[in-house]
Amino acid sequence: MADHVHKYKTPMLDELEKGPWPSFVKEIKRAAAKRPMAEGLLGQLERSYKDKQTYWKHGGLVGIQGYGAGIIGRYSALGTEFPEVAAFHTVRINQPAGWFYTSKALRTLCDIWDKHGSGLLNVHGSTGDFVLLGTTSEKLEDCFTDYSNAGWDLGGSSSDMRTPSCCNGMARCEFACFDTMALCHDLTMTYQDELHRPAFPYKFKIKIAGCPNDCVASIARSDLSIMGTWKDEIRIDQAECQAYIKAGMDIVAEITGMCPTACMTWDGKTMKINNHECNRCMHCINFMPKALRHGKETGATILVGGKAPILEGAQLASVVVPFMPMKAPFSEIKEFIQKLWDVWGENGNNRERIGEFMLRVGVGNFMESIGEAPNPNMVMHPRENPYIFYEEYFEEE
Amino acid sequence: MSTLRRSVRGHLESGDYAPVLSLVVADRGVVRALVSLLCDPDELLRWRAVSALGQLAGAHPDLAQPLVARLYWSLNDESGGIGWMSAPALGEIGRFAPQLLSKCVRPLVRYLDEPFLLAGSLWAIGRLAPAYPAETREVVPEVALCCASADPAVRASAAFALGAVGDGRARIALTGLADDQSPARLYEEGQLVTKQVREWAGEALSRLRAA
Amino acid sequence: MAAAKRETDIGPPHYEQFLHPVIKKNYGTWKYHETLKPGVMVHVAESGDKIFTVRAASPRLVSTDFIRDLASLADKHCEGHLRFTSRNNCEFMTGEQKNIDPLIADLAKLGIPVGGLNNSISNIVHTQGWVHCHTPATDASGVVKVLMDDLIDYFTHEKLPAKLRVALACCLNMCGAVHCSDIAVLGIHRRPPKVNNARVTDLCEIPTTVSSCPTAAIRPAMVDGKQTVTVDESRCMYCGNCYTSCPAMPLANPINDGVSIWVGGKVSNARSMPMFSKLAIPYLPNNPPRWPEVTDAVRKLVEVYAKHAIKHERFGEWANRIGWPRFFELTGLEFTKYHIDDYKLAQKTLRSTAQIKF
Question: What pTM was estimated for this model as a whole?
């Protein structure tokens, strides 16, 4: 790239080409050497660095015919100064489950993007989509047609079901309690309409984790968190426990002593787990994967309501169903999802996430409306305040 | 596609709103199905979903009321939603249940800055005119400017809106379209109708009152 | 805009076609895994087959050329297969152990470090910032770059007591799990929105604007005969949600915008339950291009944690164990009025006990 002279001088951004971490500035410059849109981005970004503010305008609604989501419109507030980025829309492409690709697939994705856009990408967006960063309104339809013909489709955005995502589950992880990738793909295909045509009060995110380690942060970031678990006993290989000791592990300090329910004992020879007291935190399995494996009666814990602070405050998803079977065709979770959508879809306020809706109507009432019996696993402890909305009372004759 | 959505879609295909209106009483999921159908790949069905929502608002305003904020939000959603048919839907809802639109009619009739949605916004103004004569008359100059758009669909929609509002200030802009032979497709009484822009303009002219 | 005839709703391609043959063969029958060296692990299946994974850094915002570079390496060393992680790194998977070192060497030639497994800093989850967002209070990619430059050793080595998840959100919309990270950088505004009364009436649907405010600071109002809104500045905490609903009330302001630092969150269930991040530093200035105040502050937090936490203890677990008063002592951070919650449920965060460490 030494040969290409960039149109805009970027002394501040140039500073971010230094250092050991891969540089996004270098990447924008690589794209800019071939594509004016990326060149314009450099210029505008340098201005933002100088002025310490963004120069993207509010608004900008653009889309693909037949879809109500998947394209984020963006217009520059400095469109005259940086005409290359006057329009700089983002296209979300639904990623393959687990973010697995072949080199061939990636090249196809890149070739089409180079044809229609800035040459810049996000791998990946926060929700999980393969994000194409920067194209113009006129190019959207052709861009989509090319991707569609190559076997790719748009991801979600706005008040729809967002693109579901999952951990790599059974593809490569021994901790996976169910097939996260099969579920992710199944839900994505089953709910294409809900993904592409926003009809909800607000966004709805589904994230699927194979075990309570939750490597996709589903409990923090999704309205519906499906987290693998097991009901029965942790499988123990005593010989491998000994091997860990020989390799220098202090099993008591690091493992049994850190068990949150103190359900593990190690007497120097034998590892014992009181599975009745095990709360499936994954700590012991994490650090002794050769010796300990999750049980065989597997399924998932279902939690609802995770979200970022806007509007009423951040929420972690909370338990609704402690254990749900999770095998194809995944009928139980689909029935559950339908109930959630019926209740929240019809009664949620504009821009009200299901977690906020649940709190507004009362979690107990919410559970009733979706047909889930109250369960102590839903709460940390019973209520402390005595303001109980008793629902029945008698009148004197 | 769910059974409910399929069934609602089927009624729209036949142009039958009555079954949809009775279905919604038993199953409010019909409302969400209609909102989803606003983005259906089939253009005619999208428009019929608009009509259905208007009918719904007239028959069951309480069911349409929560939609107003949601549809308006989809016109401003910076997180990537595009309310393709939200403005037409709001226009139709406002036509049959004017009280539902009182809080957003002003910004709605001024929603003329989004090129992808402009034709729909103009159509909505036309449909709102009988329910909101004063508010729609206020934006006649801005709508008239749309007669100069490069997009024939926008020119035709602007002509339709100006005719519906009926304000004489539109005469010059509409007369200016007298030679415009570009074909333009508008939704009219349940069908997509293609006429030349000058025909749409001519019809609009005949509906104008003196300025 | 005439609609072309093409298929909609085809969904993503099925993942099966992208799985490495060893992965496909042993799908669902993995037995255990081991780390071979920083950034390199092996998974062993019940069949005895092995798949080796090399985790490589990515800046997330990349060119198509970068992707093609990765694709070429995948062809050369990984039988054409690779994946990306939930925290924006890249993972190369091969069935051949001998491919690992040549792959790492080739990655080094491209300036791509290898690491990020286990008790390391794996990458910083972030979004668009000044590159593409209309509501940011800071940039994202720039801050991430300078932080990872500064903390690179913690990526390439496994020398922390436990994994350390860092995230950045350029505004309170928090696109990403910033609210549950070991260390989080959050862009913040500090000045209320400036309402353009003349434009509100034409641009904004007022009920949604009013209800968009978490603290009910916004009321409808009539000003000069126009329907608009007013902001009760004493109730405004500059979250910017109103601007999302109503473009006529912007609040970004270079003099006041900056970042805050939060610590102690986690999403995993291991040992302790998932927890929210807590405020450590209410304000640091935006000083592009290298944000020295932010890198200094974050590095100090990492170092204090690394020095004092016991093995396997996450940041928040350490702070909870020693007590937050001790956390402020050890880090030397100022405990201010802003550190005390005053939103709903604040009462739950107050400390009502005589259990004090002196």
Answer: 0.95
